[in-house]
């Protein structure tokens, strides 16, 4: 990625491109750069790897645009087959959260979940089948079998489908003053509301005694099955992460 390549884009017709730098925090599927011009800062996401999941860059652009309209994401400005350009977000990443920050995060996730899309639900079973083909060790086989059993146990609760970010780890959440915004939308799709909630619980080390607080902050009124579903999705998310990281080795 270089400035001369970017200067050809009509997006920057009225701007002088000053510098481009690789950011210290990087994802697995993209290489992220900060572009500085005489008028603004931009984020450039160079696509590195689409092989680990069924990524649709067109859908990523679409859903991020929708999310930016409700102020929970940066506005995407340009995309081609190699990279995407978005507004650059100020803020910080956090590894741990205070209860008030957790509550604010859950409110922001709820805004995301209200976005309507015409998309087939994500099938965890499909990922498990792929992992079964490539991971032959005993531990992975046990993890896959355990996850399948959990999925069967929760199968009858299929009425909580929403638009999910699907990768709400600390690197993908930016805190700035009282605002929270999400980045890296390539995994976004339709899944259970409890998948995103479980992700936050695992990634931010939310203690078991706070699970009820998570559910109350999100739902207000907590049904009996909510804790059952959240607990099981925490197990599912933990297992999927374990398999995913093992597949990268």
Report on the structure:
With 249 residues, this protein is an alpha+beta fold. The protein has eight helices and nine strands. The chain has helices at residues 3-7, 57-69, 99-113, 124-134, 138-154, 193-203, 211-219, 224-248, and strands spanning 17-22, 30-37, 41-47, 76-79, 83-87, 161-164, 173-176, 179-182, 189-192. Strands 1-2-3-5-4 form a five-stranded antiparallel sheet. The protein has a two-stranded antiparallel sheet with strand order 6-9. A hairpin with a 3-residue loop joins strand 4 and strand 5 (83-87). The longest helix has 25 residues, at 224-248. The protein is globular. The two termini are 27 Å apart.
In short:
Helix content is 43%, strand content 18%. With 249 residues, it is an alpha+beta fold.
For the largest sheet, list the strands in their spatial order: 1-2-3-5-4
> What percentage of residues falls in helices of 4 or more residues?
40-55%
Distance between the termini: 27 Å
Radius of gyration: 19 Å
Strand content: 15-25%
Pick out the low-confidence regions. none
Discrete helix count: 8
Main sheet properties: 5 strands, antiparallel
H/E series: HEEEHEEHHHEEEEHHH
Average per-residue pLDDT, rounded, comes to 93
Count every beta strand, where a strand is a DSSP E run of 2 or more residues: 9
> Pairing-aware structural class of the strands and helices?
alpha+beta
Tell me, what's the shape? globular
